[in-house]
Amino acid sequence: MADDRDDSQKTEEPTQRRLDEAHRKGDVVKSGELNSLILLSTGLLALAMFGSMSVQRFAADFRIFLENPADIVINAGNASALLEYATYGLIAVLAPAVGLIMFAALAGNVVQHRPVFSAARLKPDLGKLSPMKGFERLFGLDGWMNFVKGIAKILLAGGACVWAIWPELGRVAGSLDLSPAGIADLAMILVFKAMLAALAVLAVIAAADYVYQRRRFMSRHRMSRQELRDELKQSEGDPQVKARIRQIRMERSRKRMIAAIPGATVVITNPTHYAVALKYESGKMGAPVCVAKGVDHLALTIRKVAEENDVPIVENPPLARALYATVEVDDEIPAEHYKAVAHVIGYVMRLANRTRYWRS
């Protein structure tokens, strides 16, 4: 009952992280019918590419075995050589087609999923020895689906093969009068037609089976809402921890700004809602740099620190708002504000020179 309840709660599609984890464990979408289709297609291709050549090679190399087997003398002296001749002859005939089919056997898995090697599949699982588990695999949903697919393949593919070969029955009946090479050619034609018909049927079965296996795979890895939340915490971090980290960074940034205010050239204010502290050293900087900025409470703090350290404060609401919106801390002011800021800094410098003059 608990398992049923858990399965009923898994209503969300699996995330990419869950799918990648399944892949690492060797759990992938795999259709045996698609593998069979690729192998059969490759066999048909090999027959078309190498069939005629292989038949001619076979007929030439093994003519004596087919036409005059009585003339073959086997004794202790030539038995080894005869076996070697037959073995290498068969290898030469079958090697091209077998090599192509072996390549297709590997490609059948690669086209369904990227290559994977998982040690998890090599671990012994005593649960597979359980009679109950075996009963479930045999009579469960997958077992019935395999049974239905097997019956469908036998009936449909067999019927297609009979339908394809039926018009050639007359030629088969007269094949006794043909030479060995003619019989081989006729056999190749019949096999080619039968495979082509079976291939058309299996293509439909393989497509349906792949869709079924894909849906089963996605259903097997569905997630509950709680699992999604847990994975989000693991991948992106706990929201509370992230908020605390942001708070610490903001506090450190605020402390750095406050520490830089005493060295500022001027603080431009709104007068209370915005405050931007600028620093400019003639001949050392290409343009004034923002060393601190803030709104509301932070703006008041900037203004207070500036007053405590005798940093000039200039009230210019439009310029303060514009600088706050367009410049970041430790960046130079944008070019469009050069003229307005130069006017403010020039005013501050003239005021400073005048103060020094009167003090002297």
Backbone CA Rg: 42 Å
Element order: H for helix, E for strand: HHHHHHHHHHHEEEHEHH
Q: List the uncertain runs.
A: 1-5
* Broad structural category: mainly alpha
How far the N terminus sits from the C terminus, by CA atoms, comes to 94 Å
Number of strands: 4
Average pLDDT confidence is 76
What's the arrangement of strands in the largest beta sheet? 3-2-1-4
Anisotropy-based shape? elongated
Put simply, the count of helices is: 14
How many structural domains does the protein architecture include? Answer: 2
Main sheet characteristics: 4 strands, mixed
Task: Give short descriptive properties of this protein.
360 residues, mainly alpha, name from scop, 2 domains, four-stranded mixed beta sheet, elongated, disordered N terminus
In short:
With 360 residues, the protein is mainly alpha-helical.
Break the fold down into its secondary structure elements and pairings.
Layout: H1 2-9, H2 16-24, H3 32-61, H4 63-67, H5 79-110, H6 131-139, H7 141-165, H8 169-173, H9 180-220, H10 225-236, H11 239-260, E1 266-269, E2 274-279, E3 289-295, H12 297-308, E4 313-315, H13 317-326, H14 338-359
